[in-house]
């Protein structure tokens, strides 16, 4: 760590959680001879970037095209002014989660060494912002452009994040409608070489659906954090939901667990969320045997199906509010339009691809509000040294079954 990064790290540790941006501003003025700094945070829809220190109104436009380029490409952008001044835009990203952009104002163009030091500062600031979010409302107030419903407040608090990165994969997800989402949700956890991803569709609407989904997510986390695999997670969640609702409510769920070294993917398909494989120009749903939704009956037992991903494969998981959407009596979005959107996003990283599918879904509704909750999760697996293979499923009686597959290549992203 450079001396500059060490000074900022110390300043961030000593600052109150709601004053991190001010601490960063003071530090860049002293260490980088800058005129100041601002932080722009992505809103809940990931469609705008908004300043923390000078909050904009809900209808204000943020004149920061360079900031959007920086956020989308995840690389620094220099914007020169007429008087030789320069704004340096740096991505604020912690463990693969894109938070926003750090803007540093210089009187003259910074040297490559100053840019490098600023990049280190941005990394420390992003990590601090992510940690501080638990202890202050300031950054969440910046992110929201309208009031969240109570159900949406619970759903956003329950999320693990909106993106994650690893040398073997990239992962991103989005909830819509962002400010009123009810029962749809996604969850993930990174534990060594295992990546668990879950997409849920809680029965009903509004606060009741959000409460139901919260019970399911926390039950699955309880099983997972106790060392349980997919079967234990599904069965504990199902038993917990049934004990509370006696079969009157249920949660449709798709549970996935990826071995990031080999591409071996375990799946428990317990309801309506669907997985779609993108391999090269091919877009097709995965063939999974659907089992009962969680909580429908007492002591329901589940089985894992397994498949192999090839290096370069992309996996979308979408809720029924995406593939079954029929606005104005049109054919379901999932019949043809969804595949077109996924192909259009083939060269985009996962973080941008989820936005493309969601934007096309909104366009399919002629820009009116979605009638149902919608979740899109995108997973890109680059390969981790294991053998690739055909993504065909096999049955097993628990988490320990195995399937076989040959080597194969795929799309790189």
TrEMBL record:
Gly residues biased stretches: 398-413
Protein origin, superkingdom: Bacteria
Signal peptide bounds: none
Pfam families: SpoIIE
Positions of region (Disordered): 387-413
Domain PPM-type phosphatase residues, every copy: 166-381
Official protein name in the record: SpoIIE family protein phosphatase
Protein's organism: Micromonospora echinofusca
High-level lineage: Bacteria, Bacillati, Actinomycetota, Actinomycetes, Micromonosporales
């Amino acid at each position: 760590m450079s001396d500059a990064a060490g000074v900022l790290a110390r300043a961030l540790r000593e600052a109150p959680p709601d004053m991190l941006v001010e601490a960063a501003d003071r530090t860049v003025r002293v260490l980088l001879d800058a005129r100041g700094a601002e932080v722009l945070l992505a809103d809940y829809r990931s469609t705008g970037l908004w300043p923390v220190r000078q909050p904009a109104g809900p209808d204000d436009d943020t004149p920061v095209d360079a900031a959007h380029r920086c956020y989308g490409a995840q690389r620094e952008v220099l914007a020169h002014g007429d008087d030789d001044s320069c704004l340096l835009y740096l991505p604020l990203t912690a463990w693969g989660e894109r938070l926003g952009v750090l803007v540093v104002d210089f009187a003259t163009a910074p040297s490559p060494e100053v840019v490098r030091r600023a990049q280190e500062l941005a990394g420390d600031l992003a990590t601090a912002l992510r940690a501080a979010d638990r202890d202050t409302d300031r950054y969440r107030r910046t992110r929201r452009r309208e009031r969240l419903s109570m159900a949406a407040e619970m759903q956003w608090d329950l999320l693990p994040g909106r993106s994650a990165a690893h040398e073997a994969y990239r992962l991103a997800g989005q909830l819509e409608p962002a400010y009123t989402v009810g029962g749809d949700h996604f969850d993930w956890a990174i534990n060594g070489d295992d990546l668990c991803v879950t997409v849920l569709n809680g029965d009903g609407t509004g606060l009741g659906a959000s409460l139901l989904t919260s019970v399911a997510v926390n039950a699955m986390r309880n099983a997972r954090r106790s060392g349980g695999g997919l079967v234990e997670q599904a069965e504990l969640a199902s038993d917990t939901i049934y004990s509370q609702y006696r079969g009157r409510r249920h949660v449709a769920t798709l549970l996935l667990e990826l071995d990031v070294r080999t591409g071996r993917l375990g799946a428990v398909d317990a309801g309506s969320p669907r997985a779609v494989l993108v391999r090269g120009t091919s877009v097709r749903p995965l063939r999974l045997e659907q089992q009962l939704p969680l909580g429908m009956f007492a002591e329901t037992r589940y089985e894992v199906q397994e498949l192999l991903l090839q290096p370069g494969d992309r996996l979308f998981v979408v809720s029924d509010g995406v593939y079954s959407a029929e606005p104005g009596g049109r054919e379901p979005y999932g019949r043809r339009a969804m595949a077109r959107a996924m192909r259009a996003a083939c060269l985009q990283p996962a973080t941008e691809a989820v936005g493309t599918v969601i934007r096309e879904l909104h366009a399919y509704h002629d820009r009116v509000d979605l009638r149902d909750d919608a979740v899109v999760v995108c997973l890109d697996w680059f390969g981790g040294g294991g053998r690739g293979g055909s993504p065909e499923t096999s049955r097993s009686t628990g988490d320990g079954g195995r399937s076989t597959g040959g080597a194969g290549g795929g799309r790189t992203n």
